[in-house]
Structure formats: C-alpha cells, structure tokens
Design brief:
The protein is an alpha/beta fold. It has helices spanning 24-28, 40-46, 55-86, 109-122, 141-146, 161-172, 241-256, 275-298; strands at 19-23, 97-103, 129-133, 177-184, 189-199, 203-207, 233-238, 307-311, 317-323. It has 8 helices and 9 strands. The strands form 2 sheets. It has a 7-stranded mixed sheet with strand order 1-9-8-7-2-6-3, with helices on both faces. A two-stranded antiparallel sheet has the order 4-5. The chain is globular.
C-alpha cells in the first residue's frame, strides 16, 4: 500500500507510528466490491456550499469510511453483550454509538457529517442515525454580547459547554428522547424555544469546531469531563490552513450573492459589497476570528481523533490516517 510522504514504512518496521496512513488509491480500493448506496440526487442534497462532492468522492472515500464505522458499531454491540454476560446482568438495549466530527470553518465537515449520516443509515445493522451540530449550543448573541464574546463566536468559551456535555451524557445514558437547541445560520443565532429531538438512535454524529477539546482544569486543580470522553469514535477533517482560508473567502463571496441578499440575514449588510470589498472583509474576519480559532483551538485537537481525512486543494481527500488498535 502506498501512502504520502513515505509513510508506508510505518507498518513495515522502518518507522513506528500509532497510525496507519493510506493514500487515496489504497483507501478507495477498500470499497471496490461494495455497492454505492447514495444516488446523485442524495449527494446534491447533502453537498455544502462550494464543496466539491461527487459520486467518485463518495464511492472512494466515504463508502469505505462508512463501512469501517459500521464495523466499529457492530464490535461495540458485541462487547456490550459480552460485558452484560460477564456482569451477569440482563442485556438492555445498548446506548447509541457516538461519533465526534471536528474540523475548521469552511473545511467541509458539515458535508462530511451529512454524507456519513446518509451512508450509515443505509447499512441495515443501524438504520437510525441522528446528526447534531454544536452550533445550537452556542450562547445566544445577547448573552455573547453581555460577556464580551460576540467577536469570539466559535471559540470554546462561546459555547454552553455544560449544556453540550449534559446532552452527550444523556445520549450515552440511554435516554429515550434527548433534546438539542437549533441554530439558524440566516439569523446567526440560536432559535428561541425550538429544539431537535433525538429519539433512541443507533448512531449519533456530533459535529462541531471544538468537539475534540480536552477537559478543562478547574480552579481547584481538578479536571472535569469533556464531551469527547463520551465519543466511541472521532473524525477530524483536515487541510492546509492556506487552502481553508481560500475556501472560506470563496464561500463568503458565494454567500454575498445568495444568503446575504436576504433582508432577514444577519449579514445582509454584506450583500451590497463589491467583490473587492467582500474579499477584504472575508480576509479580515478570517484573520481576526476563524484563523486564530483554528490555530489556537481546533488544529491542536487533530491528534485526538481516531481518523483524519486530509483534503487537497480541490476539496478531494488525499489520504486517510487511522489510529491503530
């Protein structure tokens, strides 16, 4: 098997690593005998703004990933039954398998999450797959403004981390129904009194910038719990920082011509910018908010993921890095 940067030696004794690294062609070969479950219309529905996603990408990258995750889900179910037998307890329904999915703004993690949700639900072993984004757990804008955090939206401190932690704990406790708040990208705020209800799913995907953050150290020196402590598997969508910045600016320009034209949009003031003005504003936002957040908070959590999808300039996945068992 080939892999980038000579990393094929890591599994042949020349160099040790806790990861298996597979180049695109080697990873794609794992799905050659598996039927593609998504239609072109389904791919169009899950594609994000500006994401380059086609049948080949879904077949070669996300199909083997969904099959690998399905194996992990099945193995967790087997372990659950063996543990209950060892403890001489009745075998209740096991708790949902929780997948954390992290990555930068504009890297395409939301599209990855939606594709995985659709593909995992096609496997008959686990037909119920829920997707929850952490955007709903941001503090409302009024609260962020009160705390002086509106310009740090997306940084770890801008989230109601206690509420997010309670949500994941409730999921892993096996509650029949768990609610999560809803976020509107149009109004750029949490939607008051609206919730998404997660009902006894087989799998839950939790997608967000900072879902792999480690637990914070409290003032008394003790370490609390982190959301990632309750993940059964985690994925990090990665790319070169310069590429992500370019994708962010391009997405901003597309939004200027679409969503920003809506008078109800929080960013309606950007709708009348010229292209040159929009590029300057997008660069300013990246340099002051999204870039620092990526460098300081998001990127350092990459090594905590079980699997990393590394993208190339055209948004295609170039290689996959998987932590060894």
């Amino acid at each position: 098997m080939s892999s980038p940067a000579g990393s094929e030696g890591r599994d042949h004794g020349r160099e040790t690593s806790p990861y298996i690294e597979l180049a695109r062609d080697a990873w794609a070969a794992l799905a050659e005998s598996t039927e593609q479950p998504l239609s072109p219309a389904e791919i169009d529905r899950v594609r994000g703004l500006g994401d380059e996603l086609n049948l080949d990408e879904v077949q070669q990258v996300y199909l083997p990933l969904s099959r690998l995750l399905s194996l992990y889900v099945d193995a967790a179910g087997h372990l659950h039954r063996r543990q209950q037998a060892f403890l001489d307890f009745p075998v209740p329904p096991r708790t949902p398998f929780v997948i954390g999915l992290a990555g930068s703004v504009a890297v395409g993690k939301s599209t990855t999450a939606r594709v995985l949700q659709q593909m995992l639900a096609h496997w008959p072993e686990h037909p119920s797959v829920s997707l929850v984004t952490t955007d709903g757990f941001l503090f409302p804008n009024a609260e962020l403004e009160r705390r002086g955090l509106l310009q740090r939206k997306g940084f770890p401190e801008s989230y109601d981390r206690k509420a997010l932690l309670r949500f994941v704990i409730d999921i892993k406790s096996g509650k029949d129904e768990v609610e999560a708040p809803i976020y509107s990208h149009l109004t750029y705020d949490v939607v008051p009194d609206e919730k998404i209800v997660v009902k006894s799913p087989d799998i839950v995907i939790v997608e967000g910038l900072n879902v792999l953050q480690p637990a914070r150290v409290r003032e008394d020196g003790r370490t609390g719990l982190a959301v990632s402590d309750f993940f059964d598997f985690s994925v990090f969508v990665d790319a070169a920082t310069s590429d992500i910045q370019h994708w962010y600016v391009q997405r901003f320009l597309r939004l200027r011509d679409t969503a920003f034209r809506d008078p109800k949009s929080y960013f309606a003031r950007y709708g009348d910018l010229t292209e040159a003005e929009a590029r300057v504003e997008a660069a300013r936002i990246w340099e002051s908010i999204n870039g620092p957040n990526l460098t300081q908070n998001v990127l350092p959590t990459r090594s905590r993921a079980n699997l990393v999808l590394r993208k190339d300039k055209d948004h295609s996945v170039r290689y996959v890095r998987l932590r060894k068992l």
